[in-house]
Amino acid sequence: MNGAGTSTVSAVEQPLVSVVMPAYNAQATLLAAVESVLGQSMASLELVVCNDASTDATAAVLSTIADPRLRVIHNITNLGEGPTRDRAIAAASAPWIAVIDADDAWLPQRLERLLAAVGADRDVMVFDDIVECHHTAAGMRPWRRLRGDSGYGATVGTAVDLTTAQWVQSERLLIKPLLPSAWVRSSGIKHSSRRFGADSEYFLRLLAAGLKLRYLPFPGYLYRVTPGSMTAIRSRYERLAEMLEELMPLFKHSASTVSALRAKTSSLLRLVNYQSFVMNLRSRRFGAVASQILRDPWLLWELTRRLIGDAAYRVHLSYHGGTGRG
Known about the structure:
The protein is α/β, with parallel strands linked by helices and 326 residues long. Helix content is 42%, strand content 22%. It has helices at 30-38, 58-63, 81-91, 110-118, 164-168, 181-187, 198-208, 230-247, 255-282, 286-295, 298-319, and strands spanning 4-8, 17-23, 45-51, 70-75, 96-99, 105-106, 124-136, 139-145, 160-162, 178-180, 212-224, 322-323. A hairpin with a 2-residue loop joins strand 7 (124-136) and strand 8. Helix 8 packs antiparallel against helix 9 and helix 9 runs antiparallel to helix 10. The longest helix has 28 residues, at 255-282.
């Protein structure tokens, strides 16, 4: 069974949306995530949580939730986020699938707004805006929106269709869309076992197979920010660039998408160089710093931009007593 375990299933009559949530050692944030889903303004849903062989109290937290719309699957061994999300998707029974991570949360109207943005279409995945939040002792504290009301040329409250190239050209590929179940199943596409970028890869593969994309300028998804080391961030950029390069052949029918993927890959590799530049600066390797600046003066501009942004972030974080993820 490839590490899969048993499931605890409570019957729900014909839910309209199946919400899938992978969970690994999420005891500190899991309950808030689950409650934000079960507290949606539309009640016709099921929540499928796949516990990826957690070693903390994740299973115990789930056992305290009595809502019949909750279904829990337990992996016997740790499979990783992508395969775990696929197990939850395979167990979903509704015509629509929504995704959430176990350390994030939703605003109460999120599903209702996403479904309204879909309308009668059954070949589109729609995503809303994401609000980055600090982790504090009092819960998640909103910091900033990633895209805003005018993202992708949208107007306030009105969804806009966009191309894959437009999305790829975004500063961040982070999205948490609503997906049509029948389309997802017929495509046969699964998540990879990548430790970073598996979601973006999954959505890109769906788009390459013909699924359409739509943006709703509504800040319905609350995303808990994860502070990371310079080395970890550089590795993530490298892995994401590798993934995008691998997927380029899937979009050979679209010159604009291939061009966007190439540009994004170059941008990510430039950010890898920037991380090395900062590490050299912090280590006082000034010869290496000077050499990098001579090759790419953009590094100084990027350093200035990030210092300003980082100062604003730290002030906001300190004011609200924020830390990292719990």
